[in-house]
Amino acid sequence: MNRYTTGQIVETQVNFYDDNLNPVDPTSLTLQYRCTDIPTVHLTYSGSSTPGVGYIFKEAVGQYQLNIDSTPLVGYLVWQWTPSGVGQTVISSSAIILPQPVI
Predict the structure, then answer these.
(1) What's the CA gap between 19 and 42, in Å, rounded?
(2) What residues are paired with 18 via a beta bridge?
(3) Cα pseudo-dihedral 94, 99, 6, 12, rounded to 10
(4) 103 occurs within a structural domain
(5) Which pLDDT value is given to residue 102?
(6) Which of 4, 27, 31, 91 is 20 to 30 A from 77 in CA distance terms?
(7) In the 3-class helix/strand/coil scheme, how is the chain assigned residue by residue?
(8) Residue 58 covered by a domain
(9) How many other C-beta atoms lie within 10 A of the C-beta of residue 79?
(10) Rounded CA gap, 63 and 23, in Å?
């Protein structure tokens, strides 16, 4: 499990393939994430290919990313990619967000 410190960008990436292991785009794509003490955040891919923070963007055929700003987060972060249509494999992952060290 990856560890981040509050304030770092958490990069979540996913790849989708057909039965022949060729990259393929799903018909639609959603992602939800939740961290300790915050409500679940739901996002839907809206067609962007411009990298950024806080929204899903496409990097290449079958390859998508969401960068999460961990500034307000501390605790256990879990996320789940949910495609529809082609490449229908739900993919989940997690990370630990640690508080800033006291100096």
Answers:
(1) 28
(2) none
(3) -10
(4) no
(5) 78
(6) 27
(7) CEEEECCCEEEEEEECECCCCCECCCCEEEEEEEECCCCCEEEECCCCCCCCCCCEEEEECCEEEEEEECCCCCEEEEEEEEEECCCCCCEEEEEEEECCCCC
(8) yes
(9) 22
(10) 8
Supply angle C-alpha 79, 6, 103, rounded to 5. 160
CATH code at position 55 = 2.60.40.1930
Q: Per-residue pLDDT tens, the chain, 103 aa: give them.
A: 899 999 999 999 999 998 899 999 999 999 999 999 899 999 999 999 999 999 999 999 999 999 999 998 999 999 999 999 876 789 999 999 999 887 7
The two three-digit tokens of residue 28, written as one number: 């639609």
Q: Report residue 84 as tokens.
A: 């529809």
Amino acid in the structure at residue 19: D
